[in-house]
Amino acid sequence: MSKLPNVGTSIFTMMSQMANECNAINLSQGFPNFPVDKRLTDIVARLASENVHQYTPMSGFPPLLEKIAKLTQHSYQRVVKTKDEILITAGATEGIFATIQALVNANNEVIILDPSYDCYEAPILLSNAKPIRVALNNDFTPNWKKIKEATNENTKLIIINNPHNPTGKTWTKNDFVQLEKLVDSFPNLIVLSDEVYEYITFEEAHISIHHRPKLWNRSISVSSFGKSFHITGWKIGYVIAPEYLMTEIKKVHQFLVFSVNSISQVAISEYLDIVDVQSLGSFYQQKRDFFRNLLKETKLELLPCEGTYFQVASYANISNKDDLTFAKQLVTEIGVATIPISSFYANGTATKCIRFCFAKDDTTLIQAAERLMKL
Questions:
Q1: For 232, which of 80, 88, 152, 197 is 20 to 30 Å away at the CA?
Q2: pLDDT of residue 215
Q3: Is the full-model pTM beyond 0.90?
Q4: pLDDT tens profile 204-262
Q5: First-residue to last-residue Cα distance in the chain
Q6: Domains along the sequence of the chain with CATH
Q7: What is the pLDDT of residue 60?
Q8: How many CA atoms are closer than 13 Å to the CA of 220, on its beta-carbon side?
Q9: With the C-alpha atoms ordered 214, 115, 101, 69, is the resulting torsion angle positive or negative?
């Protein structure tokens, strides 16, 4: 009997397969198609012949832990202990999985805000716990009334994602005030903050869980070097949590992967000395603005994009078809692969919206826009 009976081929795999079969431009999966910073690849090339190929300590390469602590202090003015509060993970997904498996017990409840990324629910179900899906507002902001109504003494975690995938929305200070009130009301509640796009925000600066001292002892943050440095195939991220929670997370992590691949840790540790992570927002804002300007000539209605490298668009004035059907039609007839937003909801909520990834080179975006003008 399957432990995950409702899990099949993901929408991301499906749309990428269709893109390959139809020779379509793939704007569905969230991976960049432009070169990695040559400074980083040069570091990797040099390290390949050095003695960096054996296990690192379970928590991570010590110099990298130090660099993350320094980065966190510089970005958020938060001081974290390298030995006890930071863990290098095999991507953000492993960090999320290990956290949920470590902290959530059978029959606990975990709040997920829909639309949501698909890696949250499986580890909850594998813990014999109950995912509670709470819909965001129509503009994809948190509905605090519904969230509070869904929270009870048995709620162990609330998972937040800011900046938000798939919609590109970001949280306001008031959202964090409301979150603090919720945590105050439920002493057993812990926050799992998915911040993999933390350095990819635009007009408004990112507000992190790290900016909120009241939440530090009750929260876990998850970050991604893969997203920040467009090296998604490296599958390397990190978790920051107070020691009493991190102790439990490490217990699971050591039996999942024990330690993350060594050469990537050493390479990123060196790269952090020369890269300006604060410049990532302006880099991707140029991509966003370029893509949005191209799509102005189409019949699609563009929704606000405040962070991430995804652009959501409504096709409501083009077609009455459901978004999965419309997305498949885009691949087969127009030659552009996207992701239907309904796939991020537990109940497949119909929004007549699709998601584009604009982390692509200019030529790819131009060609995609030319095809979309045929709609």
A1: 80
A2: 98
A3: yes
A4: 999 999 999 999 999 999 999 999 999 999 999 999 999 999 999 999 999 999 999 99
A5: 45
A6: 11-30+279-372 (3.90.1150.10), 38-271 (3.40.640.10)
A7: 98
A8: 30
A9: negative
- Residue 239 CB coordination number (10 Å): 25
Query: For residue 75, with 0-12 CB atoms within 10 Å meaning exposed, 13-18 middle and 19 or more buried, which class applies?
Result: middle
For residue 336, the SS3 value is: strand
Single-letter code of the amino acid located at 89: T
b/e 263-286 (16+ beta carbons within 10 angstroms → b) = bbbbbbbbbbeebeeeebbeebbe
Based on its alpha-carbon atoms, the radius of gyration of the chain, rounded to whole angstroms, reads 20
Residues of the chain scoring pLDDT < 70: none
Tokens of 99: 């956290």
pLDDT digits (tens, 9 = 90+) for 131-178: 999 999 999 999 999 999 999 999 999 999 999 999 999 999 999 999
* Per-residue CA distances from 236 to 88, 222, 309, 337 (Å): 7, 11, 18, 26
Scan for tokens 């490296």, then name that residue.
234
Distance in angstroms (rounded) separating the CA atoms of residues 372 and 375: 6
Spell out the residues 6+ positions from residue 136 whose beta carbon is closer than 8 angstroms to its own: 113, 114, 115, 142, 143, 167, 169
Contact 220, 191 (CB under 8 A): yes
* Contact yes or no for 182/151 (Cβ under 8 A): yes
